[in-house]
Design goal:
Jelly Rolls, 282 residues
Amino acid sequence: MFARLVPLLGVVAAALPVARTQTLLFPNFNSTTGLQLNSVSAPSGGILTLADTGRDRGAVFTTAQYSVAQFSALFEFVIANPSGSTDSTGINGADGIAFVIQSDARGAGALGSFKEGLGYGGINNSLAIEFDTFKNDANSETANDPNSNHVGINLGGSVNSALTATIGTRLDNGQKWTAWVDYNGSVMELRMSQDGIRPSEATLSYSIDTTALAAALGGATQAYLGFSAATGSATADHQLLSFVFSDTYLANGIAAVPEPSTYALLALGLGLAGLGVWRRRG
């Protein structure tokens, strides 16, 4: 038995140079060890639903803080079943999901506002990347919403984006989206696809050096990591499928979320079987 196990562990060891760059690894959310769920129900089928009913909001954050001086992240999400009231463009369904980096005084328990707040608005000392599916009225705080289907960079708990980019395909089409966020200490880039293949061109590119990022985080160089979503009178199902984070910048990004079987082998090789959180060893 041991003789047969040695070659297997050898295969695992061969994969470790890549695996060691992964500080957090959630191929699904069957386990939420290391996470705090704020107004979010326990996962079902390995999926976290952050918001779905009318006037709903939810967030999930790591219970520990991680270095964000440089990083690469990958996550998968679905926004499905848009319904309810329409925005000024005649599109229904709302409001969107956000990837949030924060050092708010509430820590892992932070939860922002409903509707255009995406569960993020009002979380201080933060940077968020929003995936927004509702164009808010011109007299609102989000007057710079270009349309009802865009992404944006938000700072300091504000829902008024510093930079936006329009997405051609509906974000709430019920299909899986894969997003890559890579930060090299001077530029933060977002890439997106529906085929799971990382595009060569960034969807959104935002210049922010480590000093400016630390300032946005209230002087912090470490932060809680997570996601939020919200609805108002318009609704949609906002589902988080997976999350991988490296506190090392990877020039070509994180290739893909490991399959559960691969994750089990890697966890076995590290003696961490059954844990949802995988901390990189220095």
